[in-house]
Amino acid sequence: MGTTGKPTNYAQVYRRIIQQVFLFAAVLGGLAVVMGYLVDGTNGLWGALIGAGVIAIFFTVSAVVMLKSQGQPPVTQIRNQVISFAIKIISLFGLIFVLGQATWMNPKIFAATILAGVIGSLMLEWRAIVGARVPPSGGV
User: Fold this and answer.
1) How remote is the C-alpha of 84 from its chain's centroid?
2) How far apart are CA 51 and CA 56, in angstroms?
3) CA 117 to CA 23: how far, in whole Å?
4) Cα dist. 99→105, 111, 115 in Å?
5) How far does Cα 1 stand from its chain's mean position?
6) Cα 103 from chain centroid?
7) Who contacts 109 (Cβ-Cβ below 8 Å, separation ≥6)?
8) In sequence order, which residues have a C-beta less than 8 Å from that of residue 140 and are 6 or more positions away?
9) Residue 126: what are its φ and ψ, rounded to 5°?
């Protein structure tokens, strides 16, 4: 980290993103489970739990791809992120297809949990990247 406390290379940016996103996922999961239970009882609880689980798995995949891509050329990093993103989106649509008609969980709470997770993580990632002091030509 630089003298300003801001990350000065991509490894530091990745670590900051991972730390913030996992903390966010834990808080989101806890809040979603409580809110899901209060809104729709056991069905809401299951919807929130499954949504929080999906978010945790997706964040883990993103973190692993970021960490494994360190030191690679930028094109390779982007390729790895895009491939992992495509796999996650296809998996999410598969889950929505399979769980969309489930009567033992609330699909709206499931979707709301995932939507909140995606929006929150994007905001945290954006904030970490914008706040970094990484030169545009290096730091990889």
Assistant:
1) 12
2) 9
3) 11
4) 8, 11, 16
5) 24
6) 27
7) 32, 35, 36, 39, 40, 43, 44, 47, 48, 51
8) 9, 10, 70, 71, 72, 73, 74, 77
9) -60, -45
Best CA proximity match to 104, nearest among 44, 55, 48: 44
| CA separation for the pair 103, 110 (Å, rounded) | 12
0.85 surpassed by pTM: no
Contact 61, 88 (CB under 8 A): yes
Question: Which tokens is 106 given?
Answer: 């609330």
* Helices and strands (H and E) in the chain: how many: 3, 0
The 10s digit of each residue's pLDDT in 46-75 is 999 999 989 888 888 888 888 888 888 889
Calpha distance 119→140 (Å, rounded): 26
Which of 121, 120, 123, 135 is closest to 6 using CA atoms? 135
DSSP per-residue codes, 91-128: HHHHHHHHHTT-SSS-HHHHHHHHHHHHHHHHHHHHHH
For 71-98, write each residue's pLDDT tens digit: 888 899 889 989 999 999 999 899 889 8
